[in-house]
Design a protein that fits this description.
The chain is built from 3 helices and no strands. It is an all-alpha fold.
Amino acid sequence: MFPVLIILHVCVCVALILIVLLQKGKGAGMGAAFGGSSQTVFGSTGATSLLHKVTTAVAVIFMLTSLGLSIFIGKGANTSIMQDVQPVEQTSEAPAPAAPANDSTQGKQ
């Protein structure tokens, strides 16, 4: 199940990248002013509604596969990196502050 989820996740990642690259940017209206709008792939009305729906669906699938992978990977981790560390014993006394270093050159000018 884990390899299938990884393959699906990679395919969804590539699809999401390609779908986002297919969409028009904010400055796409400038190209239409100079006659570039007649060569659209999805027709004269554009593909905003279709591409937005597909992008939303692929993004949801991407999030679900990411969540699934994190759950699968997290199940096997029942150890801690702090297992071999000994706890520090607490004492009731506070440690004494360090005495300042006695420098004989401070007062002489």
